[in-house]
């Protein structure tokens, strides 16, 4: 009937007609569409056109598109990465009065067989107090429940600027099913079950005084894989997390915040149902949580007391995470530890001197189920001195004391233990001198640090480092120079490695900053007990050209040569990229 249509209205504010450009195939369609469009143009008067134009003018669209290709070449050793890698990414944001719809996507040559695919897309439109998450997104309820784990699904947030209730909710897939297979007795791929989850977080109160309720549930789909469905090492799990968090302003300068969560976790849902001893309410939740012999219930809690004024701040904190506590809403979470921490900071002499100190005590093996238990004592102090605009100094000292007690024989008659103590001390100092000559700016700095580790009172490792350098910017010439010299020594009872060398970088802008060139090089010489241990030479060059505000191109290339008494090889990586930025309104 028709192949291509172009509809281009040119409407003037005080005219009641539009000029239409029509390219059609088929005589009947041509006359019909021309009649409809001409009639529609006569209906709209000048005021209607003005309203439509106003709506269009208040819509903002911005975003970017980028593409990168990386080439890799190596001589002397086996390649450590693919010879070519490509990646594209795009972002889009549509905004109007009270509405914002951001969108982002990333695509690469990576395969989609991973549990969390690298290729991603998602958007988070917002309207006044509401925000929606669609696609690959991440949300946070609290530290011990849902804390930034990525999902593919839908989420919503309601956070009014003036209101007593705010809420978050989500539902989505937290892991994609990966069904591995056997080949010559080996497992190919990393098998995992498809995991789905949902949850909500409701907070009641103001920003200064509030109480929040957290709920999160996730479960692996047993039927999502077939080859490893009955494998003893690949287990489908289930998780239910519920808890409370609060923030309270208890005085003018004092605040208190706390959180407590319980996590009911089943390691293998394929087992027969069983009663979870000691927690009767968990056994009466129906399909929300079905306990068996692999289930457990643990808790995690934290509490902080804070004081803050213009010259003094302090924070007292306590955390305890039960052994075995875990949640499907967090990628990684430590457990089986309890710690108490304190932080203080002061400012003196019109803020020219700042002093801060912190300390803490941490222990593990909370249920006495391990043969070894560890006690850690951490203390640090730092000072900053800024006497004037030209000089500033910084000093830091930290001490980490770790003691481990391991039971070798433990009976009612005798007990034999092994004690292990490690103390790590670290001290550093830095001085900076700012330079101002006319319109040019620069600085010179020097720093040194020392680290020492002792095991059972004996020095085990020592590290000494020093760095001296500076940078200077010639404003009119649009030239930046930076030079530094570094040296360090690492000693153990059996080794002594010394390394030193210079680093130089240059940057120059041309054509009204449209073209920027950079170059850098470094040389690092290593000695082992004063004999040659190797040389590393690095060289980098880069160029970026902005054609206009929308289009820019860049190329970066790095070359490295590493040689030591056992091997010599070179590597070269070149990256070429393009970026397009656009903005309307």
Summary of the model, kept short:
With 585 residues, the protein is mainly β. It has two helices and 29 strands.
Overall description:
The chain has helices spanning 27-43, 46-57, and strands spanning 60-75, 84-96, 99-108, 120-123, 126-127, 130-140, 147-158, 165-175, 181-183, 186-188, 194-205, 210-221, 238-249, 254-266, 295-308, 312-321, 337-348, 353-364, 372-385, 391-410, 415-437, 440-455, 458-474, 479-491, 496-510, 515-528, 531-546, 551-563, 568-584. The chain is mostly beta strands and 585 residues long. The longest helix is centred in the N-terminal third of the chain and has 17 residues, at 27-43. The chain has a 27-stranded antiparallel β-sheet that branches. It has a domain at 1-57. A hairpin with a 4-residue loop joins strand 24 and strand 25. The chain starts with 26 loop residues before the first helix and ends with a strand. The chain is globular, with a radius of gyration of 32 Å.
């Amino acid at each position: 009937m028709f192949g291509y249509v172009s509809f281009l209205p040119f409407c003037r504010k005080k005219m009641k007609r539009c000029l239409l450009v029509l390219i059609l195939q088929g005589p009947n369609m041509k006359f019909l569409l021309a009649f409809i469009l001409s009639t529609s143009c006569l209906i709209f008067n000048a005021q209607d056109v003005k309203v439509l134009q106003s709506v269009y003018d208040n819509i903002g669209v911005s975003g970017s598109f980028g593409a990168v290709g990386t080439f890799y070449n190596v001589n002397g050793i086996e390649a450590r990465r693919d010879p070519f890698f490509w990646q594209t990414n795009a972002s889009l944001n549509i905004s109007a009065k009270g509405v914002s719809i951001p969108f982002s996507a990333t695509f690469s040559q990576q395969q989609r067989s991973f549990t969390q695919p690298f290729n991603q897309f998602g958007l988070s439109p917002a309207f006044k107090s509401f925000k929606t998450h669609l696609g690959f997104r991440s949300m946070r309820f609290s530290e011990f429940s849902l804390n930034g784990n990525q999902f593919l699904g839908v989420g919503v947030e309601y956070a009014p600027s003036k209101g007593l209730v705010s809420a978050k909710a989500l539902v989505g897939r937290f892991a994609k099913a990966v069904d591995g297979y056997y080949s010559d007795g080996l497992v190919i791929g990393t098998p995992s079950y498809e995991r789905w989850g949902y949850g909500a977080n409701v907070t009641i109160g103001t920003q200064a005084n509030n109480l929040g309720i957290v709920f999160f549930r996730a479960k692996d789909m047993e039927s999502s894989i077939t080859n490893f469905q009955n494998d003893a090492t690949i287990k489908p799990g289930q998780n239910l997390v519920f808890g409370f968090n609060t923030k309270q302003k208890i005085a003018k300068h004092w605040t208190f915040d706390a959180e407590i969560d319980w996590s009911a976790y089943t390691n293998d849902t394929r087992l027969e149902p069983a009663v979870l001893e000691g927690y009767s309410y968990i056994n009466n939740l129906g399909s929300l949580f079905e306990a068996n012999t692999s289930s457990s219930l643990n808790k995690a809690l934290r509490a902080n007391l804070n004081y803050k004024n213009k010259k003094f701040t302090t924070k007292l904190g306590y955390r305890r995470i039960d052994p075995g506590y875990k949640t499907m809403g967090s990628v990684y979470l430590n457990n089986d530890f309890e710690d108490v921490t304190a932080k203080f900071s002061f400012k003196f002499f019109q803020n020219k001197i700042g002093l801060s100190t912190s300390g803490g005590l941490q222990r593990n093996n909370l249920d006495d189920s391990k043969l070894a238990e560890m006690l850690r004592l951490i203390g640090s102090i730092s000072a900053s001195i800024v006497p004037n605009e030209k000089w500033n100094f910084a000093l830091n000292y930290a001490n980490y004391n770790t003691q481990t007690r391991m039971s070798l024989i433990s009976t009612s008659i005798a007990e034999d233990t092994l004690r292990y103590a490690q103390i790590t001390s670290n001290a550093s100092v830095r001085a900076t001198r700012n330079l101002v000559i006319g319109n040019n700016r620069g600085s010179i700095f020097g720093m040194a640090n020392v680290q020492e580790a002792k095991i059972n009172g004996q020095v085990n490792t020592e590290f000494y480092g020093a760095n001296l350098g500076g940078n200077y910017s010639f404003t009119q010439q649009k030239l930046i120079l930076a030079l530094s010299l570094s040296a360090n020594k690492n000693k153990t009872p059996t080794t002594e490695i010394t390394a030193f060398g210079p680093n130089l970088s240059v940057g120059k802008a041309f054509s009204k900053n449209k073209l920027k060139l950079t170059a850098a090089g470094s040389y690092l010489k290593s000695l082992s007990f004063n004999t040659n241990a190797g040389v590393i030479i690095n060289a980098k060059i880069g160029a970026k050209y902005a054609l206009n505000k929308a289009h820019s191109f860049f190329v970066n290339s790095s070359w490295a040569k590493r040689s030591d008494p056992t091997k010599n090889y070179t590597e070269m990586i070149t990256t070429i990229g393009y970026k397009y930025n656009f903005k309307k309104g």
